[in-house]
Amino acid sequence: HSVSCGLLILIVIFSQNQKSCQMLNDSTVGIFRDSKELRLRRASIRCCVMSADAFRLALCSHRLLELDASWASEGLTGASVVSGLVSSPECSVSLQRLSLNGLHLDWGSLEESCVGFSSLLGLRTLHLANTDLTDDILEDICSLPHLESLDISCTPVSNLSALLQCKNSLRSLIAHRLRQLNMSPSRLLFVLSQLDALRHLDFSDDRPPAEDTDGRDGDEVARQLLEGSSRILPSLVSLDLSGRKMIGEAALAAFVESRSGLIFLGLLATGLSSSHVLTSLRNLKVTGEANENQVCEALRKYTERECFVQKALIQLYRLTTDADTAQPDMLELVLGAMKSHPSSLHVHLVATACVFNLTTQDLAEAMPVSLICSTITQLLHAMKTFPNHQQVQKNCLLALCSDYILQDIPFDRYVAAMLVINWLSNHQDPTLQRMAVAVISILVAKVETFKNSRITQLLAIVQQKAMVGVVDSTLKFALSALWNLTDEMPSAARSFIQCQGLELYEEVLESYYNEPTIQQKILGLLNNIAEVKELQADLMDEGLLEHIVILLKDTQVEVGVRYFAGGILAHLTSKAEAWTLDQDFRDAILKQLHESIITWAHLEREMVSYRSFCPFCPLLQTCQPSGVQLWAVWAIHLVCSQNTSHYSSMLERDGVTELLKALAAHPDTHSDIQRLVGSILRTCKWIKFYIYSTKCKKEKRNS
Ligand SMILES: *[C@@H]1O[C@H](CO)[C@@H](O)[C@H](O)[C@H]1NC(C)=O
Ligand SMILES: *[C@@H]1O[C@H](CO)[C@@H](O)[C@H](O)[C@H]1NC(C)=O
Ligand SMILES: *[C@@H]1O[C@H](CO)[C@@H](O)[C@H](O)[C@H]1NC(C)=O
Ligand SMILES: *[C@@H]1O[C@H](CO)[C@@H](O)[C@H](O)[C@H]1NC(C)=O
Ligand SMILES: CC(=O)N[C@H]1CO[C@H](CO)[C@@H](O)[C@@H]1O
After folding, report:
1. Quick one: DSSP state of residue 499?
2. Ligand 4 mean position to 604 CA, how many Å?
3. pTM to 2 decimal places
4. Which ligand is nearest to the CA of 28?
5. What is the pLDDT of residues 360-388, one digit of tens each?
6. What phi and psi, each to the nearest 5 degrees, are found at residue 229?
7. Distance (Å, rounded) from C-alpha 372 to C-alpha 359?
8. Using CA positions, which residue lies closest to atom 13 of ligand 4?
9. Distance from the alpha carbon of residue 643 to the mean position of ligand 4, in angstroms
10. Is 13 helix (H, G, I), strand (E, B) or coil?
11. Ligand 4 probe mutation, 609, 640, 643, 649, most atoms within 8 A of CB
């Protein structure tokens, strides 16, 4: 926008999320160079990759009130930001809030030793958490005349005496996790107790259990702070002591009772959060582990503190193990934790378990779809980040393994299937394998352009199982996935062949002769291949076909298996010109097809479903041998009688009705086929009439 009327405009550059971080860089930030047309007041280049020069040229000529350059990378250091700001006559007086969390201060590089934070005379709020702040710099900062709020968490400062300089203005001090503090408890308590204007004090510390003895002095100061009378820090309304041990309930009670205006207490990992003195204080916000409110408060408050986040998540997990109502707010907090600590194993280990408990089947259905979508994104991120961590993968798979999520929620199924398959190819834990294959078999059915090379991995599972001869759900799922994968997907069928799938399947078919569920899935896949004209030559293998004929003939074998055997043979024999084996063999197969099919009993249960009838069309031509026609007609009759409304419209759509009518009318059509065709056409006509008449009734009622 071009701004002409000289109005003061306020632009906030949002770069809180990763996307906008990628957008704001040396070249794009250049659009802000013209400080006459565009007047920036608040700028955030948080997490951006930017050089010191680009920063100075584009941003320092504005009269900035606020700047957040936390976690910026590339050339920006604390020193370059401050010298840039100081060099601008505008900023050096206007700036009130500055955040440089996570930056390398690199103070030694400052050329003029007289430049420092104290040159930014208007500064009221300064955030320097996770920097290399030193005692000297702190001394300089504390000489700022209006300093109200200071965050020096996770820095190596050792001496807080400098704070005495700003004791009349400082209202908020965040001094979380100061590990190198080197002051006696009495001296520290003295300094703190002089801060008369202080309303908020954060003196928390997160320590892994192994380092529990390190913070004893700090714990002692915390205890004395609580016990001291309300004359110490008289304005205090918010105190965070999370992680401080051995304070004791008596000290807490004394503190709470002497301060009526308290609004916040941080008590996570202090052992005090379930203290009875807290129960009566309704308006007091508390972080801790005693109840859901405290745990959620901790997750909100400590987003950036990994150790606290992990502790709070462990409590949340405890609270959700028997969750029976949907809690979208909680799920949101868990996702927030995962996003804030994208590479923390500790956080993801617990967070993924929480996600599972918060989304088990019907709970997920009661939550907003967008929330479940971002949950899946986070789960996939976790799977990608911790590819070899068994428990994280297990939690993610458990959460994904839901019909609702896999079927109804929009997400990148291709990426998901890749992650699961990649994991599967490197791991052999049977429970997880079963789950992974179950997830894949649903995913691949939905992914249209599935990368074919991955078939190898599913084949490896089949091979591994077949070698020991077991029949388990992993084997069945792998076979189902391959079957679905190749359904009307010639490219997938081709790579199956290239991956030596046929050789493997021929072996498996023979070694599992008495396992109809296995045979059905194998023959189902071979059917998919037989439907593809260009691949039929690959099936012209006398050994394989003889074996399939045996299955077709065997009256002891289930019709479900013989049906697929018939399908393969019907497709292969339907093209006389493509038949490369012995002609007598083809004639024998055709004869056998007719003789077998006519004896098959009608099946009640659903055995197969078709996405289209197109593969049947060549088989229904009037010139085809009766064995070929009979198989196709029997198949259509089967699915139409099981799900008439669905398949009768497919008959119309794929032009099969016309072919059936032509067959019925042709004088050479065998009477067995005539009979079945008549039955199909009657059923479908009836359903068409039924649908038509109910529609008319509805329309009448509506008018
Ligand atoms: C800066 O970001 C833009 C937009 O994201 C990108 O097209 C450009 O290549 C980036 N430039 C540099 C120097 O990184
Ligand atoms: C701490 O800093 C104060 C000045 O701010 C100084 O007088 C004191 O000697 C320092 N203490 C130590 C132990 O360095
Ligand atoms: C939560 O997960 C644990 C295992 O991680 C399981 O034992 C428990 O049943 C789950 N609770 C719910 C409500 O799903
Ligand atoms: C018929 O098939 C369609 C599509 O596969 C399916 O949605 C529907 O539930 C089936 N109906 C019956 C009665 O099986
Ligand atoms: C068309 C097809 O092959 N569908 C199969 C997909 O896999 C499921 C089992 O997971 C079978 O039941 C379908 O018949």
Report:
1. T
2. 14
3. 0.68
4. 1
5. 868 999 999 999 999 999 999 999 999 98
6. -75, 175
7. 8
8. 643
9. 6
10. strand
11. 643
Residue 656 above 50 pLDDT? yes
User: Which ligand gives the minimal distance to the CA of 608?
Assistant: 5
- Pocket of ligand 4 contains residue 643 by CB under 6 Å: yes
User: Rounded mean pLDDT of 258-263?
Assistant: 90
Name the closest-CA residue to atom 4, ligand 5.
Answer: 484
Please report where in the chains the tokens 């918010």 appear, as a residue: 238
- State how far the Cα of 456 lies from the Cα of 469, in Å rounded to an integer: 19
Contacts (Cβ under 8 Å, ≥6 apart) of 309: 299, 302, 303, 337, 340, 341, 347
What 3 state SS string does 426-440 have? CCCCHHHHHHHHHHH
Closest CA to 627 of 549, 534, 540, 546: 549
Q: Which are the contacts of 479, defined by CB distance < 8 A and separation ≥ 6?
A: 462, 518, 521, 522, 525
Distance, CA of 384 to CA of 89 (rounded, Å) = 48
**Residue 229 neighbours by CB under 8 Å, 6+ apart:** 258
CA-closest residue to ligand 5 atom 10? 480
Q: How many CA atoms lie within 13 A of 307 on its CB side?
A: 14
For 432-464, the DSSP string reads HHHHHHHHHHHHHHH-TT--GGGHHHHHHHHHH
Nearest CA to ligand 1 atom 8: 27
Q: Which helix (H) or strand (E) holds 172?
A: strand 172-174
Q: What is the largest CA-CA distance in the chain?
A: 111
Shortest-distance Cα residue to atom 8 of ligand 3:
321
Phi-psi region of 248 (alpha: psi -120 to 50; beta: other; left: phi over 0): left
Best substitution site from 357, 363, 393 to test ligand 3's pocket, by max atoms within 8 Å of Cβ?
357
- CA-nearest of 410, 413, 438, 414 to 424 is 438
Q: What is the pLDDT of residue 697?
A: 58
Atom of ligand 1 nearest to the CA of 26: 13
- Closest CA to ligand 1's atom 1: 25
- Whether the per-residue pLDDT at 34 is higher than 90: the answer is no
